[in-house]
Design a protein that fits this description.
By secondary structure, this protein is mainly alpha-helical. It has one domain. The protein has one helix and no strands. The chain is rod-shaped. The N and C termini lie far apart (95 Å). The model has no long low-confidence stretch (mean pLDDT 93).
Length: 63
């Protein structure tokens, strides 16, 4: 029994899993919120571009 144990104990593995789960609980909502913000920004830019295109087309028709 002079060999060193080089493995992880069950408690250490559970601690790592708990820490990773906590990181995910914090990170996932932030990432989802960021993605939603990007989608809304893209939608606003697209809507703005369509309005400007309609204004340009109207100006062409009037002139």
């Amino acid at each position: 029994m002079n060999e060193k144990n080089r493995g992880f104990t069950l408690i250490e593995m559970l601690a790592v899993i708990v820490v990773l789960a906590l990181i995910m609980v914090i990170a996932v909502p932030l990432v989802l919120k960021t993605i939603e913000g990007v989608k809304q920004g893209a939608f606003k830019n697209s809507a703005y571009a369509m309005v400007k295109a309609a204004e340009l087309e109207y100006a062409k028709q009037v002139l």
